[in-house]
Amino acid sequence: MKQELEKCGILEENVSLKKLNTYRIDTKTKYLLHPRTVEEVQRFFRLVQEKNLSYFVLGNGSNVVLSDTTYPGVIVKLDQFKSITYHDEQVVAGAGVMINFLSRDILAHGLSGLEWASGIPGTVGGCVFGNAEAYKVSTFDVLKEVMVVTPDSEILSISSDDLEYGYRTSSFKTHPGCIILSATFQLKKGNKEESFQLIKERFLRRASSQPLDYPSAGSVFRNPSSSLASWQLISELQLKGKRINDAMVSVKHANFIINLGNATGKDIRSLIQLIHDEVERVYHIDLILEQEFKDW
Ligand SMILES: Cc1cc2nc3c(=O)[nH]c(=O)nc-3n(C[C@H](O)[C@H](O)[C@H](O)COP(=O)(O)OP(=O)(O)OC[C@H]3O[C@@H](n4cnc5c(N)ncnc54)[C@H](O)[C@@H]3O)c2cc1C
């Protein structure tokens, strides 16, 4: 198996994932594969079909709660897909490009349209998959086209008009399987200084309201359709500071769980469950998770 996987990219074996997820959950994977070319991704999918391999793609690991045991299959990282090319008012970015980096890079090209994404620590692939959103602008609002490899090893360029999306979801999330290689964003001409100012203001806003100095994966729950936001419901229940071992409900932002040092995936899941059940018991609201449990 190892030799065949080596033909699909740079291969690492028995790798710690601690630095590859923003909760800093200390877990491992049997194989970590970094494909370098589209052909290697296609070859990987042929191997997946031939050998019935289990796999999943990890972006920056900023929206996932990983399991504590060693992942027995192959985790694919698109971190070799980092090209950024400009065509007039469009930018094509590889799936491994960080969206917060891209939101600043476009400014140097006199373009605007990704300021909203400047505080999101995710990759282009992860943001398309989950339709990342901030300040009421979502990835699909500026997405024009996505290039993917399907599980049948087919390369497809899909117009965003042919994809479904919604609040923190997309066709890729509802029908998982494809590997996103790159995304084309439709931007517009902008004013560098104004955009930079907006990014700075928003950074300061996040820094004052979010526990950015601790490992987390952003907001835990979506806001329900009730009049109170998730953080308000959780605060009302006096759950700020609630701990399960090193997993703690942030005192700064009640809809964040932070890792105080050695929180496991199980600690974080248990705390999420506890919050969910308390909100359901008291308010009869079934909070929906914004983060994704990666079970294996
Ligand atoms: C401090 C903080 C603030 C945040 N603020 C926001 C915010 O304002 N708005 C927001 O929407 N989110 C926010 N998030 C959450 C997170 O950053 C986003 O959801 C982001 O889009 C996740 O991208 P990722 O690359 O980390 O994806 P990951 O967490 O690595 O993966 C998420 C999912 O996408 C899939 N995936 C990733 N790349 C690919 C690919 N190339 N092909 C196919 N599938 C893929 C994975 O398999 C997984 O199912 C925040 C997180 C943190 C830690």
Which secondary structure elements does this structure contain, and how are they paired or packed?
Elements lengths: L1 H5 L3 E7 L11 E7 L3 H14 L3 E4 L5 E3 L4 E7 L6 E4 L2 E5 L4 H7 L5 E2 L11 H7 L2 E2 L2 E2 H4 E7 L5 E5 L5 E2 L2 E2 H4 L4 E8 L1 E2 L2 H18 L20 H7 L6 E2 L2 E3 L7 E3 L5 H19 L8 E3 L2
Parallel strand pairs: 2-5, 3-5, 4-20
Antiparallel strand pairs: 1-2, 6-7, 7-15, 8-16, 9-10, 11-12, 11-15, 13-14, 17-18, 18-19
The chain binds flavin-adenine dinucleotide.
Describe the structure.
There is one protein chain. By secondary structure, the protein is of the alpha+beta class. The protein has 3 domains: 2-77, Uridine Diphospho-n-acetylenolpyruvylglucosamine Reductase, domain 2 (2-Layer Sandwich); 84-208, Uridine Diphospho-n-acetylenolpyruvylglucosamine Reductase, domain 3; 211-294, UDP-N-acetylenolpyruvoylglucosamine reductase, C-terminal domain (Uridine Diphospho-n-acetylenolpyruvylglucosamine Reductase, domain 1, Alpha-Beta Complex). It has helices spanning 2-6, 38-51, 99-105, 124-130, 139-142, 171-174, 192-209, 230-236, 265-283, and strands spanning 10-16, 28-34, 55-58, 64-66, 71-77, 84-87, 90-94, 111-112, 133-134, 137-138, 143-149, 155-159, 165-166, 169-170, 179-186, 188-189, 243-244, 247-249, 257-259, 292-294. The chain starts with a helix and ends with a strand. Bound molecules: flavin-adenine dinucleotide. Flavin-adenine dinucleotide (FAD) binds at residues 22, 56-64, 78, 95, 120-123, 125-127, 129-130, 132-134, 179-180, 210, 212, 216-218, 292.
